[in-house]
Design brief:
CATH class of the largest domain: Alpha Beta
Organism: Amborella trichopoda
Mean pLDDT: 81
Strand order of the largest sheet: 2-3-11-5-10-9-6-8-7
Radius of gyration: 23 Å
Number of domains: 2
InterPro entries: DEAD/DEAH_box_helicase_dom, Helicase_ATP-bd, Helicase_C-like, P-loop_NTPase, RNA_helicase_DEAD_Q_motif
Pfam family, one: Helicase_C
GO molecular function: ATP binding; hydrolase activity; mRNA binding; RNA helicase activity
EC number: 3.6.4.13
Structural class: alpha/beta
Shape: globular
Distance between the termini: 55 Å
CATH superfamily of the largest domain: P-loop containing nucleotide triphosphate hydrolases
C-alpha cells in the first residue's frame, strides 16, 4: 500500500508539473519537448542511428553507436531505466522533464544498465548531455554508504559549480550528498592539510583541486563507482588537463575495494578531434562509443553569419548600431574575445557609451567571477563579454545571440620554410563549436555573428567553413541596416 501511495503522489506531482509547463510559452529543456509521435523502440547495437525510424539527436544528426557484444534498447520513458522513485520524482518534479531527449534515449541505457560499461560520448551542445552523466552518477550512488562514490572532473570552476547545481535539483529527493572541489578565494581558503576528509557521496570539481585532495588523502577513491569527465576532449588533450586526468584515473584504479573492483568511466563532450578520440578509445577499454560526424556539428537551429568590416572600430559600430538596436527579440548576448585585455577594453568602451554589460576572464578574483556569472544567470545583466573561459558547457537558456568579436584561434606558428615571415594563425575549431553552442540551447532559435577584419580573419573563416563543410551566410555590406534586419528576422530575433 505504501508503494501504491508513493506512486500516486509522484503521478500527481508529475501531472501538476506538466500542467505548469504547458502554460509556459516555450519549453525549458529538451527533456520537456513535445512528443509529436511515439518514438519507435530501437536496439542500440553496432549501428548508425539516422533516418526517419531511428532515434536521432535533437539536431537530426547522424550518430555512430558502437556497443560491441552488449545489446541495449532505447528508452522512450524514464521509467524504462529502472530508476528509483526518488530519482523519477526529481526528473519530473524538480527538473520538469516529461521524457528523455533523443540523445538521452540512446545513451542512458548504456550508462545505467549493468554491467555499467564505460562510454565515450559526443553529442551536440544543448542536447541533454549533462542530464545523462548526472543521472548516471545519482543512479550508481548508495545513499546509505557515506563515502565518495562518484567523481566528476570539469575544466573550469564555473562548469563544476553549474553541474553541481543540476545534480542538487535532480537529486533533490534522494538524500545523496555532494560537494564542489574547486579553487576558492583567499577569504575562504583552507589548506588541504587542514581540511576534513571528504564524506560527501558525489564530488564535482576541477582537476588540480581533485588531484591535490586525492594526493593528500582527503578524498578517498576506494569506493568510486563512476568517474565522469565533462568536456572530455579538453580534459584529455596534451595542451589541456591530460596529465591531471590520467593521475586521477590511476589513483582510482590503484585503490579500489575488492567488493567493487571496476569503475565506470564516462567521457562526454560536444567535440573530439581525431587524436583525442583515439586516445579516449584506448584508455576506455571495452567501452561503448557514440560519435557525431564533424560536418553535423555546425548546428542548423543556430543561424550563423559572417561580416567583413574594415577595422576594429567598425566591429563596435556593427555591434551597437546594427545588431543591438535592430534586434527587437533579443534575450541575452555573449560576446567572445580572444584575450583578457580585449575583454576589458570592450567592456569599458560599451559601458562608456551607455550599454549595460559585464565581462569575465580568468584573471578576475574568484568571488568576482562567481558574482558576474550569477548576475547573468539571474537576468540582471543582458550582455556578457567573455574569453573562452565560458565557451564550454555554460548553460543559459535565455542566450539567443553570440558574437565572435574575435574569431577563435588555436595556436600561432611561423612558417618553417621562412622563419622571418610573420606568424600564421590557425582556427580553434573546437572552440568555435562550443562558442556558438551557447546560443540556441535545447533546440531554441539563436544567431551567431562572426566579425572579420582583414585578410587573416577571412582566411580563418574560410578554414572553419571547410572543416565543418558548412557554408556560413555573409552579410555583404556592414553598413546596411536592411541586410542586418533581414538576418535578424531570419534568426527570429527581430
Amino acid at each position: 500500500m505504501a508503494e501504491e501511495s508513493e506512486k500516486v503522489v509522484i503521478e500527481s506531482e508529475k501531472k501538476e508539473s506538466a500542467e505548469k509547463v504547458a502554460v509556459e510559452s516555450e519549453k525549458k529543456r529538451w527533456g520537456d519537448e513535445e512528443a509529436d509521435e511515439e518514438p519507435e523502440k530501437v536496439d542500440i547495437g553496432s549501428l548508425t542511428l539516422a533516418g526517419k525510424n531511428a532515434i536521432d539527436d535533437p539536431h537530426e544528426s547522424e550518430i555512430e553507436v558502437k556497443t560491441g557484444d552488449s545489446l541495449y534498447t532505447s528508452a522512450k520513458t524514464f521509467e524504462e531505466l529502472n530508476l528509483s522513485k526518488e530519482l523519477l520524482k526529481g526528473l519530473y518534479v524538480a527538473m520538469g522533464f516529461s521524457r528523455p531527449s533523443r540523445i538521452q534515449a540512446v545513451s542512458l541505457p548504456m550508462i545505467v544498465t549493468p554491467p555499467y560499461k564505460s562510454l565515450v560520448a559526443q553529442a551536440h551542445n544543448g542536447s541533454g548531455k549533462t542530464t545523462c552523466f548526472v543521472l548516471g552518477m545519482l543512479s550508481r550512488v548508495d545513499p546509505n554508504h557515506k563515502v565518495p562514490q562518484a567523481l566528476c572532473v570539469c575544466p573550469t570552476r564555473e562548469l563544476a559549480i553549474q553541474n553541481r547545481e543540476v545534480l542538487l535539483r535532480m537529486g533533490k529527493y534522494t538524500g545523496i550528498t555532494s560537494m564542489c572541489a574547486v579553487p576558492t578565494d583567499k577569504n575562504s581558503f583552507i589548506t588541504t592539510s587542514r581540511m576534513e576528509a571528504v564524506t560527501e557521496q558525489v564530488v564535482i570539481g576541477t582537476p588540480g583541486t581533485l588531484k591535490g585532495w586525492i594526493a593528500k588523502r582527503k578524498l578517498s577513491t576506494r569506493y568510486i563507482k563512476i568517474l565522469v569527465f565533462d568536456e572530455a576532449d579538453q580534459m584529455l588533450a596534451e595542451e589541456g588537463f591530460k596529465d591531471d586526468s590520467l593521475r586521477i584515473m590511476k589513483a582510482i584504479e590503484g585503490n579500489k575495494s575488492n567488493s567493487d573492483p571496476n569503475c565506470q568511466v564516462l567521457l562526454f563532450s560536444a567535440t573530439f578531434n581525431e587524436t583525442v578520440k583515439d586516445f579516449a578509445s584506448r584508455i576506455v577499454k571495452d567501452g561503448n562509443h557514440m560519435f557525431v560526424k564533424k560536418e553535423e556539428l555546425a548546428l542548423d537551429t543556430i543561424k550563423q553569419y559572417k561580416v567583413q568590416v574594415p577595422d576594429e572600430l567598425a566591429k563596435l559600430e556593427v555591434l551597437k548600431n546594427k545588431i543591438f538596436l535592430l534586434a527587437q527579440k533579443l534575450g541575452q548576448t555573449i560576446i567572445f574575445v580572444n584575450t583578457r585585455q580585449s575583454a576589458s577594453i570592450l567592456h569599458r568602451t560599451l559601458e562608456k557609451e551607455g550599454w549595460d554589460c559585464t565581462s569575465i576572464q580568468g584573471a578576475l578574483e574568484l568571488d568576482a567571477r562567481d558574482r558576474i556569472v550569477n548576475e547573468f544567470k539571474s537576468g540582471l545583466t543582458k550582455v556578457l563579454i567573455s574569453t573562452d573561459v565560458l565557451a564550454r558547457g555554460f548553460d543559459q537558456a535565455q542566450v539567443n545571440l553570440v558574437v565572435n568579436f574575435d574569431l577563435p584561434i588555436k595556436y600561432q606558428h611561423p612558417d618553417p620554410q621562412n622563419p622571418r615571415q610573420r606568424r600564421r594563425t590557425e582556427p580553434d575549431y573546437e572552440a568555435y563549436i562550443h562558442r556558438i553552442g551557447r546560443a540556441g540551447r535545447f533546440g531554441r532559435k539563436g544567431a551567431v555573428f562572426n566579425f572579420m577584419s582583414g585578410h587573416d580573419d577571412a582566411e580563418l573563416m574560410e578554414k572553419i567553413e571547410k572543416h565543418f563543410q558548412h557554408k556560413i551566410k555573409e552579410i555583404s555590406s556592414w553598413e546596411s541596416e536592411e541586410l542586418f534586419e533581414a538576418a535578424l528576422k531570419e534568426a527570429g530575433l527581430a
